[in-house]
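PROTOCOL LOG
Step 1. Enter all chains and additional molecules of the complex.
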Amino acid sequence: MRVVSGIQPTGKPHLGNYLGAIVNYVKLQDEAHAQGGQCFIFLADLHAISMPHSPAELTKNTREMVATLVACGVDPAKTVLFNQAQVPAHAELQWLLSGTARMGWLNRMTQWKDKAGKNREGQSIALFTYPVLQAADVLLYQATHVPVGEDQKQHLELARDIAQKFNNDFCDEDAPLFTLPDPYIPPAAARIMSLRDGSSKMSKSDPSEMSRISLTDDADTIMKKIKKAKTDSEPLPSEAKELDERAEAKNLVGIYAALVGKSVDDVLADHGGQGFGAFKPALGEVLIETLAPINARFAELKDDQEALDAILARGAARAREIALPTLDATYKALGLVRG
Ligand code: AQP
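Step 2. Run joint prediction.
Step 3. Record the structure below.
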């Protein structure tokens, strides 16, 4: 079992990152550890430069993201925790796979279409080739399980296509180089939506702070954001299917269900008929209770720059070592001569 996933240090991680991905990093880390497998979690700082960014902010966010992941339960003793910039093999493998990836495949990526909008010509090349770097990230470690939110499913499918084509084009049938990675998407909470707009996902780069719950928000901020979350004026129904046309209500009930580990139907069995004046404070309390220990641990860790850098340095050294055989084999398969 090889678990590999990454998160961009582009801001404070939010509830969507937590329920969609980080909870599963911890779950799979423990499973892999128990089975003698391996888990790699990296900060996707090379991905972060695909959009305009402030270098000083990127450095600060990278350290804060390490502190947050550790506060959430990612354990550097069980997981190889590092940032891409310290493992050049990621960028090297991306280039080597760029000969295999196809323009048409990348053109179809919905994240590219969403982020580029109408101004494709004005976007960085990195934003367009982002999914090839993502393929390199997971193929480099022969990932079997990739815990991601639903928005990343298409990129994972592309990574499989690239791996498959490379294996077909450059490897013997009985000795494929790359393992085809499987996405590990949570059955619930795979896509947490903005608190201001139930049709767009909760995102670090949304200009409105009120659109997301950051994992480091304090209790008052959490309650304020939940109370101000957009909803309709109807009471909660008693069955999940009645939420289908009520995006904002569905999102809040889905968050509650994921946090307490119940199905949406079970939550509605308890709260159906309630208005948001009663449901929102109940949700706020559950969120505060879930995030309080993460907040406390984050506060202990966040200012110890030396310790955070040491975690990344140790992880990167290990990652470089484990990445090497696959990187070497890729050069060789392509017929590239290296001294
Ligand atoms: N709203 C979400 N619901 C469920 N899962 C989510 N993820 C992100 N948003 C949601 C999952 O979190 C992991 C890390 O994501 P990322 O930071 O690398 O990139 P992203 O998907 O682009 O996240 P953001 O917050 O929207 O960042 P920005 O605004 O910088 O682009 C991934 O597994 C993702 O699926």
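Step 4. Note key features.
The mean pLDDT is 96.
Residues 7-8, 10, 16-17, 20-21, 44, 148-149, 151-152, 190-192, 201-205 surround adenosine-5'-tetraphosphate (CB under 6 Å).
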